[in-house]
């Protein structure tokens, strides 16, 4: 969105100075006693056209439209709950006050005192008995008829998007409801919300590249966390037994419709449970969120969700059996022989190729929610070995609408096995895998204190909101997404 013409900006600044010259503070400190527009309107839905009441209210919001002048004018005031028409009359306010009110610019923030009535067309309206300028808008708002359509501007200048588009305000109110519903579900089930470090001396808990920063006083490099997993499991070791954290994680990866380098995750860990219990809880929580927001989109969230082993899901879509091709050479040969698969295999380790088969050939085909289960151990350095399938771990990912939104394990709690897994990750790093997990000795020592059987889940809030709102880009559901210069 280009800057407005200088004459428009100059005209608004000139008006600001005139207001000040009249002895009016254009930026007062407060305006107590405001009632939300929706709360004003709710009790009076049955008011008949032309009917007036003495009930007085105070509302506040942005001036979005103005009709009429002289002896009577109608103005629209918008707050986060909705729009309300107000009627200004010179015989009520006086000539000077009336002239001052109708001279306000669109976009100005205004407080209104008035009494309720229904206009001749039946629209609920406040008859203005007093008003206060709350903040002078020095820039014109986006076009009221067409809203703000330019996608780049909507993301870079989210405040303009929220001013212009009621749908944007509704989306982020819905996102807040998703978060509060999730929190309430975990709180009600006895989970404790905790906070762990964002700046970490050693990143871990996922396979991703970190952001690196430098702490001047400590004179050491630190990492923005890529996950909260390792610290939360140390809480389990300490006896908290059911913990969760909802907050930001950071991964230094490419931008896409599904990836923002700063994203919101909830991770929860439950002692004495396994990945089957975790599937049940994810299913229950997502269904409760869909109910809370009155979801009416294309996906069917009703239980039970299908549970399909990863090897079977890949074979169904590609014809490649990763179980029968359990080393890099044979898997590369199977990919080369396939007429359904085209992957860059050069210098790629086996786990990375398997992950690509999943993300490029299985994930995009998913519509309704599904659990894909039982992953190779090489893809899951923190998951517990499968109790009946050698070479696999008890892990699932939840998918819906062509993307993964949750990841969970029966958590590995054998410290010696964890050491071996870390060693394997180090070898993968030496082979060129820049998203492998670094060795974390302090975490292993925590496991040596003893960690009970535990189920752990990571669920992406941004992607969950994408699913629930029908948005196809993560930038739509993040208030201020990362953007190129």
UniProtKB/TrEMBL annotation:
Protein name (database record): lysine--tRNA ligase
EC number(s) recorded for this UniProt protein: 6.1.1.6
GO cellular component, as recorded: cytosol
EC class (word): ligase
Organism: freshwater metagenome
Annotated Pfam families: tRNA-synt_2 (PF00152), tRNA_anti-codon (PF01336)
Keywords: Aminoacyl-tRNA synthetase, ATP-binding, Ligase, Metal-binding, Nucleotide-binding
Reactions it catalyzes: tRNA(Lys) + L-lysine + ATP = L-lysyl-tRNA(Lys) + AMP + diphosphate
């Amino acid at each position: 969105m280009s800057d407005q013409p200088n004459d428009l900006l100059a005209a608004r600044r000139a008006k600001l100075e005139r207001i000040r010259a009249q002895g009016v503070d254009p930026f007062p400190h407060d305006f107590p006693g405001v009632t939300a527009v929706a709360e004003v309107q709710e009790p009076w839905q049955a008011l008949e056209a032309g009917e007036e009441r003495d009930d007085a209210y105070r509302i506040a919001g942005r001036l979005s439209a103005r009709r009429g002048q002289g002896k009577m004018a109608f103005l629209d005031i918008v707050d986060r709950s909705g729009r309300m028409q107000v009627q200004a009359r010179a015989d009520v306010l006086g000539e000077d006050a009336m002239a001052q009110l109708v001279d306000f610019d669109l976009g100005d923030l205004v407080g209104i005192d008035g009494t309720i009535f229904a206009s001749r067309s039946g629209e609920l309206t406040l008859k203005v008995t007093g008003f206060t300028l709350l903040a002078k808008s020095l820039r014109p708002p986006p076009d009221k008829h067409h809203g703000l359509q330019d996608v780049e501007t909507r993301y870079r200048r989210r405040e303009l998007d929220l001013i212009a588009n009621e749908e944007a305000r509704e989306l982020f109110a819905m996102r807040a409801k998703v978060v509060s519903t999730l929190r309430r579900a975990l709180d009600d089930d006895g989970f404790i919300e905790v906070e762990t470090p964002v700046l970490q001396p050693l990143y871990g808990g996922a396979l991703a590249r970190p952001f690196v920063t430098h702490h001047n006083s400590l004179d050491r490099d630190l990492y923005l966390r890529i996950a909260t997993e390792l610290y939360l499991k140390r809480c389990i070791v300490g006896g908290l037994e059911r913990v969760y954290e909802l907050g930001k994680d950071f991964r230094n990866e490419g931008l896409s419709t599904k990836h923002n380098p700063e994203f919101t995750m909830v991770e929860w860990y439950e002692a004495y449970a396994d990945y089957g219990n975790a599937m049940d809880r994810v299913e229950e929580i997502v269904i409760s969120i869909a109910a809370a927001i009155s979801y009416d989109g294309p996906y069917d969230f009703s239980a039970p969700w299908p549970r399909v082993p990863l090897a079977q899901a890949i074979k169904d879509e590609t014809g490649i059996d990763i179980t029968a091709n359990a080393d890099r050479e044979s898997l590369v040969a199977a990919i080369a022989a396939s007429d359904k698969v085209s992957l860059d295999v050069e210098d790629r380790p086996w786990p990375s190729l398997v992950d690509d088969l999943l993300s490029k050939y299985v994930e995009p085909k998913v519509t309704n929610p599904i659990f894909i289960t039982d992953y190779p151990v090489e893809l899951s350095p923190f998951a517990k070995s499968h109790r009946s399938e050698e070479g696999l771990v008890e892990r699932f990912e939840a998918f819906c609408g062509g993307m993964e939104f949750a990841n969970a394990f029966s958590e590995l709690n054998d410290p010696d096995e964890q050491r071996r897994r870390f060693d394997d990750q180090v070898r993968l790093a030496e082979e060129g895998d820049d998203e492998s997990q670094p060795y974390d000795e302090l975490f292993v020592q925590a496991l040596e204190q003893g960690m009970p059987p535990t189920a752990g889940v990571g669920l992406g809030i941004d992607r969950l909101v994408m699913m629930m709102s029908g948005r196809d880009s993560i930038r739509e559901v993040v208030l201020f997404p990362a953007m190129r210069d």
